[in-house]
Amino acid sequence: MRILVVEDDVNLSRQLSEALKDAGYVVDQAFDGEEGHYLGDTEPYDAIILDIGLPEMDGITVLEKWRADGKGMPVLLLTARDRWSDKVAGIDAGADDYVAKPFHVEEVLARIRALIRRAAGHASADIICGPVRLDTKGSKASVNGEALKLTSHEYRLLSYLMHHMGEVVSRTELVEHMYDQDFDRDSNTIEVFVGRLRKKIGVDMIETVRGLGYRMQAPANGK
Ligand code: CA
């Protein structure tokens, strides 16, 4: 899962980015409204954290422009504690949630997890697909109750496939959601990660859909 953080306070941006990376997300950062708007317009993010008070273009305007262009990704606004009018304006502009500053990073992480889950149609913190359970809170997974030892790339891959279970996900889509914008992307590596993940899961659940990509679903026999 790939997150964009649009925040001009360099320390706060770093704090958020590090916490998100620790939780298994890939993170891009923008430090003003124009750069943030551009990235959100051109890159596919699973969620965006957007500060309201930004140089070049304020957060509400950035959000309004995205929504006017039909961009539907989940957006969490960062607002000033005492500015209730900002919260109202933000939600009216199409924000999915907000957190008032100062905040605890854990709260932002919990809200981001919930936004990403709900965008994918999952209400619970644990996503279950046959014998595989993804614990989005602990950033870990298990098969038949046994913990899977996954690298960060494998976790990201599994997490994306499970959030989109039953759907065909292309290699390009996986690359875009598993790496940040500066990463030297090679979609061939995806095949390698899928192979390793299949081996670790041990149950045949990730189907290769020729020419299209991959689809993860519970085995038909219910095991
Ligand atoms: Ca700011």
UniProtKB/TrEMBL annotation:
InterPro entries: CheY-like_superfamily (IPR011006), OmpR/PhoB-type_DNA-bd (IPR001867), Sig_transdc_resp-reg_C-effctor (IPR016032), Sig_transdc_resp-reg_receiver (IPR001789), WalR-like (IPR039420), WH-like_DNA-bd_sf (IPR036388). CDD domains: REC_OmpR_EcPhoP-like, trans_reg_C. The modification 4-aspartylphosphate is found at residue 51. Residues 2-116 form the Response regulatory domain. Residues 124-218 bind DNA. Pfam families: Response_reg (PF00072), Trans_reg_C (PF00486). Keywords: DNA-binding, Phosphoprotein. The keyword GTP-binding does not apply. Residues 124-218 form the OmpR/PhoB-type domain. The keyword Phosphoprotein applies. This is Response regulator transcription factor. It comes from Shinella curvata.
